[in-house]
Design brief:
The chain is mostly helical and 322 residues long. The protein folds into 2 domains: 3-73; 83-320, no CATH class. It has helices spanning 3-23, 30-50, 55-73, 81-96, 98-121, 125-130, 132-143, 156-176, 183-205, 209-242, 249-281, 290-320. It is elongated and about 80 Å long.
């Protein structure tokens, strides 16, 4: 690329960097400053390679020194980083991926509908998706009047560790597959959605839909919501590759990957909570009043909506107001 074209392509980004340095960082949050600095180092590396003695290379080097000093000067050494991550960084990351969350939710719900319709029109579909062993075991439990007995058959602590680790792994895979230009994440959302729709319709066919809803959604409200949110993080990362905008593709990918990683890390406590509920509470659902199950389900839904939807709006507004 000719030097003039290189300058023209990146001029707006460098001017923004100058504004950030001149204002002392006012009007630029930490994520934007970090993204600009990453993009700047990529540009500087390119300029050093192709225009080593150029004025633009010296200019970019001065910008890089200034940004480096500003970032490290503003780093806090207090112990509030941990709290800041949960009350600011994760909500802001969710605010930035609002559209992706909407897409992930739509894909998951549509897939669940497809799973239910497929189970309705094809009697072999349920066994294909859930496996003969699981279907036969569930039918036997239903016959014995204990449709949800699968949750009470394993030791609590063993079940807790296995389920929690498995759910965390699924969420990270759902996110990580976004590197395949989002298509890997879409596949995981479709797969999990079809399984859920197929399972719930199977329970409906067996006449135990209410029992299944009052049992599995005790933990499923948080678990399923978290998988969808991880899907939004994966789509955001994939979009960073597909639509780099004014950034280089590598800089855009780094920025979107960091954004998505914050969300996935923020989901870890949710999966721990879901694992606890599934291992210790769901097994009690057959003897629990319906109101008790509904209270847990509702409280879980309120938590998810408050932290991952409502709080991001307020965090974004505070950030914009400075």
């Amino acid at each position: 690329m000719r030097e003039a074209a290189f300058v023209q392509r990146n001029r707006a980004k460098w001017e923004r960097l100058e504004q950030v340095l001149a204002s002392g960082g006012v009007g630029a949050d930490a994520d934007e400053s970090s993204a600009l600095y990453i993009a700047l180092t990529d540009d500087l590396s390119y300029a050093r390679t192709f225009y080593p003695d150029s004025q633009v290379t010296r200019y970019l080097n001065e910008l890089a020194v200034g940004m480096h000093q500003r970032i490290h000067r503003n780093q806090k050494t207090t112990n509030d980083h941990f709290l800041r991550f949960w009350v600011r960084d994760v909500p802001l990351a969710m605010a930035a991926t609002r559209k992706q969350l909407l897409i992930a939710t739509a894909v998951f719900l549509l897939s669940a509908l497809i799973g239910a319709l497929s189970a309705h029109y094809d009697t072999t579909f349920t066994r294909l998706i859930m496996g003969d062993g699981y279907v036969d075991m569930t039918l036997e439990n239903i016959k014995e009047g204990k449709p949800m007995n699968v949750y009470g058959s394993a030791p609590r602590m063993d079940m807790f560790f296995y389920i929690t680790l498995n759910n965390i792994m699924v969420s990270f895979i759902t996110f990580a597959l976004g590197v395949l230009f989002s298509y890997g994440t879409w596949f995981m959302l479709v797969r999990n959605g079809v399984m859920l729709g197929c399972f719930q319709y199977f329970m409906y066919q067996q006449g135990v839909l209410q029992e299944s809803v009052l049992s599995i959604w005790i933990h499923g409200t948080i678990e399923i919501s978290s998988i969808v949110i991880a899907g939004a993080a994966g789509i955001a990362m994939g979009n960073g590759l597909l639509f780099p905008g004014t950034y280089t593709r590598l800089a855009s990918f780094r920025r979107s990957a960091l954004l998505g990683l914050k969300i996935v890390i923020g989901l870890v406590p949710c999966f721990i909570m879901a694992g606890f509920l599934e291992s210790f509470i769901t097994r009690l659902s057959p003897d629990m009043p319906a109101a008790g199950s509904m209270a847990i389900i509702l409280a879980s839904a309120v938590f998810i909506v408050t932290y991952f939807i409502v709080l991001p709006f307020h965090a974004e507004r505070r950030e914009q107001q400075g």
